[in-house]
Design a protein that fits this description.
Length: 677
């Protein structure tokens, strides 16, 4: 547009005034607008003031500090206390519960229950779910004490553990230990066997006692009246050692402590299950979230015959009363299978006391009892055997050709031995009959229990060299003496077979001929258990097989079907020729018909019996009565049962131990099903 004027004056004309802006051009004629607009820029100086960096550093440090605090707090909440916080958060809406696996039932061989389960409710606490504030915890403890009757201080000690007591003297250390204790996720037992009315009250108040719950934990009920306490054992609360040995246990579990319960713990205990349920504000289940079924333990059938067990226990108890003895034991065993049919330990105890939690007073009463009810005399005892060991010596002497079945010895009532270093010193070894038994062969020596005969064949005398200590020890070991019988309960003794090395180590003295005489008749330092003698005499009865003894017969599923069965195990065989064993059995048979066990057994038992009496001295000064022993097997021609009975410090074996065996065999073989079924 022609009338348009340039923005800054008129193009091509001189400016009418001297202060008009001069438009400068560069060499190309372009206008230099910057110079024209700001002619004094170069002289104007710096308009902005320089800024310090210190405030930025402070801000960055604050940001880093806040971020570090956030990271530490997140680590503490998520890592250190994550499990606890999750439990606390979910504890308001999720209820977790252990579903206990029923423990397997224990039966006798005829499926008579010997041990079963009883439902029992107990109060437990998970420390990590308790309030963090001490005052809040104390309020919870007070409420639990009101509901259960357990003292508040006891509840606090059980909930927070004993690590506070072990933490140190300062309050800071105690506080630190307390916080560590409260991180535990394992349930802790507060009180077992909660009464039904208290259980109902506790359940109603469950939301007021966070961390606490009711756990249904079955306990054992033993139905044997204590007769089999030494064999069945008992269950008890898991110990710290149990927890270390088996990580699958939790601290409120009940586990086998002794006997069958301990030996077959893995078979009987089963596997616990669990449930996780969502609950409403009132604590009522709304939805089952997860569930793991409990796997019941397997049932066990023992080889024990409960009726036979009762009869043998009754017969031994009668002889304890008759003799005034305080202790006795007896075992019945199948000589061909190793099955233990009866196992008596007297006096006994009620294992229900331990299963339910024994009091200090009751435990002290048991430990102070001179009858030693807690000691398993049958398998763990060790006693001088007396003459019941003579059948083993007879078998060894025949096998080693020290004597033959017709070899005779004149039993004049004693043997007199001259000291080889001083002819003026003589030692006398007497028989039980002052005038002696006259001339006897091996069979008659067994029947009449001639000490002189067995001194001779054991240590040697006159023209009979004797077995000597080395061969005696060797055959005792072959018969299972001096070693644990490996029966299937933990409590068992190896007994003792003394040797020259043992005597030298014990007393510093050398072995002499009299030591061989002593162990040849079951005296001196020779010690055996009733179970060991039952195994040894079973070998005489069955033709020479050492059978491993056992209580287990079969494991059963819930329907009663066998899942595993016991198999007879021959530990050793063939070390005695059958004809020699036949000779020994004949000597034991004559002991019943015309010998030391004559004649009531033959009159009262409806099958032929073979037996051996034993009277074991226990005190060189004669202040204590000897142990009475008796061993027998029957029927003589087809042995089905071996019985060994010990009546401690009672007197003669024929007088006190033999009647217990006689009465048991008479009852047993008069049953319609016979003695063993």
């Amino acid at each position: 547009m022609k009338n348009d004027k340039p923005l800054f004056g008129y193009a091509g004309e001189d400016h009418p005034r001297s202060d008009r802006m001069t438009i400068k051009r560069d060499q190309r004629g372009n206008e230099r607008w910057a110079d024209a607009i700001l002619p004094a820029d170069a002289a104007a100086g710096v308009l902005e003031t320089p800024t310090s960096r210190q405030p930025l550093g402070v801000i960055a440090a604050v940001v880093v500090l806040l971020f570090s605090i956030l990271v530490v707090q997140l680590f503490r909440l998520q890592i250190i206390g994550g499990e606890r916080n999750l439990s606390l958060a979910e504890g308001n809406r999720i209820r977790q519960k252990i579903v206990r696996a029923p423990r397997g039932v224990v039966y006798d061989r005829h499926k008579i229950a010997l041990a079963k389960n009883l439902a029992s409710s107990e109060v437990t606490v998970v420390p990590s779910l308790l309030p963090r504030e001490k005052a809040q915890r104390q309020a919870v403890y007070a409420r639990v004490a009101e509901l259960t009757g357990v003292p508040e201080a006891e509840i606090a000690a059980k909930a927070e553990g004993d690590c506070i007591n072990r933490s140190g003297k300062t309050e800071a250390l105690k506080e630190r230990a307390q916080q560590i204790c409260l991180l535990q996720n394992q349930p802790q037992l507060i009180t077992p066997r909660l009464a039904r009315e208290k259980e109902l009250r506790f359940d109603e108040a469950i939301l007021t006692v966070p961390g606490f719950s009711i756990d249904v934990n079955p306990i054992r009920e033993y139905l044997d009246g204590g007769s089999l306490a030494a064999i069945l054992g008992y269950t008890g609360r898991v110990s710290p050692e149990d927890l270390k040995r088996n990580p699958s246990y939790i601290s409120t579990d009940l586990v086998g402590k002794l006997g069958i319960e301990r030996q077959y713990e893995d078979t009987l205990r089963g596997r616990n299950g669990s449930e996780q349920a969502e609950v409403d504000s009132g604590g009522r289940p709304v939805k089952l979230l997860t569930s793991k079924r409990a796997e019941p333990g397997q049932n066990i059938m023992l080889s024990i015959d409960w009726e036979l067990q009762k009869k043998l226990a009754e017969s031994i108890a009668a002889q304890l009363t008759a003799s005034g003895s305080k202790r006795g034991a007896g075992i019945a065993m199948h000589p061909r299978t190793g099955e233990i049919l009866a196992a008596v330990n007297l006096p006994t105890y009620d294992n229900n006391l331990f299963a339910k939690g024994i009091s200090a007073a009751d435990y002290k009463k048991l430990t102070d009892d001179p009858g030693q009810p807690l000691f398993n005399k049958l398998t763990a005892g060790a006693y001088p055997s007396g003459s019941i060991i003579k059948p083993l010596v007879a078998a060894a002497a025949l096998q080693e050709k020290v004597v033959g079945s017709g070899t005779t010895v004149n039993d004049s009532g004693q043997l007199e031995i001259t000291n080889r270093y001083d002819p003026n010193v003589k030692y006398t070894f007497r028989s039980y009959e002052p005038g002696g038994l006259g001339v006897v062969n091996l069979v008659r020596a067994l029947a009449l229990s001639s000490n002189v005969y067995f001194y001779t064949v054991g240590g040697g005398y006159g023209n009979i060299k004797g077995l000597g200590v080395d061969r005696l020890v060797s055959y005792y070991h072959k018969f299972g003496l001096g070693q644990k019988p490996e029966v299937d309960i933990p409590e068992q003794s190896a007994g003792r077979v003394p040797t020259p090395e043992y005597k030298k180590r014990l007393s510093g003295e050398s072995w002499v001929l009299g030591d061989s005489y002593n162990i040849a008749v079951g005296q001196g330092d020779m010690l055996v258990s009733p179970l060991q003698m039952a195994v040894a005499i079973s070998a005489i009865a069955n033709g020479g097989d050492i059978i491993r003894p056992h209580f287990f017969k079969a494991s059963l599923d819930g329907a009663g079907n066998p899942t595993a069965t016991a198999k007879s195990e021959v530990v050793r065989k063939g070390f005695i020729d059958p004809q020699h064993l036949a000779t020994v059995r004949e000597g034991m048979r004559q002991a019943v018909t015309t010998g030391t066990a004559c004649c009531l057994i033959e009159e009262q038992v409806p099958v032929p019996v073979a037996a051996k009496t034993g009277t074991a001295e226990t005190d060189p000064e004669g202040k204590r009565a000897p142990h009475a022993w008796f061993e027998a097997f029957a029927p003589y021609n087809d042995p089905q049962i071996v019985i060994v009975v010990l009546i401690e410090n009672s007197g003669e074996g024929a007088q006190y131990a033999a009647p217990a065996v006689r009465d048991t065999l008479a009852w047993c073989f008069k049953r319609p099903q016979g003695c063993v079924k």
